[in-house]
Amino acid sequence: MGDLSELSLKDQLFLRAYRWRRIEPVPWTSLRKPLSECRVALVSSAGFVLPGQEPFDAKKRGGDPSFREIPAGVEAGALIDTHRSRSFDHSGMRRDPNLAFPLDRLRELEQSGRVGRVNRRHLSFMGSLTATGVFVRETAPAAARLLAEDDVDVALLVPV
Amino acid sequence: MCSQAVGLAAAELERQSISTVAIQLLREVAVRVRPPRALFVPFRHGYPLDAPSEPGRQRAVLEAALAMLEDPALRPPALVDL
Q1: How many domains is chain B partitioned into structurally?
Q2: Across the interface, do B33 and A22 touch by the CB < 8 Å criterion?
Q3: The domain containing residue B46 runs over which residues?
């Protein structure tokens, strides 16, 4: 299971000393209509990009806070893993990107009527961010505004 | 770190009036960061939807996330175990 003990001793020590950014106050948006009428987007921090998109910068100090737009119609198999972390096993999500960016599963939810509509685009981050200042002040608000402009009702967020 | 990033992104989305569920792989990170709605999953890092090429198991995780959105009893920050 997801546990600090599965990480290297160096990573464990770092994370135990790390000052996590606490969300205060915690915002809350209740569902305003049935899920079967909601527009849904995915937000993954698995560091996926598409061919032709710039890979996430593995060398950026504190982590790369940028994001990529992933059009809804792409094949899951087209996603390319550029996540810099060596602290987890990448093999599963490279074999099946739905494991961390569930494009096919969301399309199935739309086809079955469980959710209303898949948004025209999803967002991809690389979650290996130790310095979160730019992410909180600039990147995440910009990303959220994009989905708000699309009239997205629900976002499902997937880390690795 | 990934769990923190999606939690922070979820908060910003909620501020933009978008309802969210953030899957979380580390319970203690979810407790400390406090995403609005967090679904703690008992899977190892790199496997947030359980297993590759297992659509049924992946759907089960997503269904649990969707169920959180439909639960009127939840209050922020909501942390639910899969």
Answers
A1: 1
A2: yes
A3: 2-81
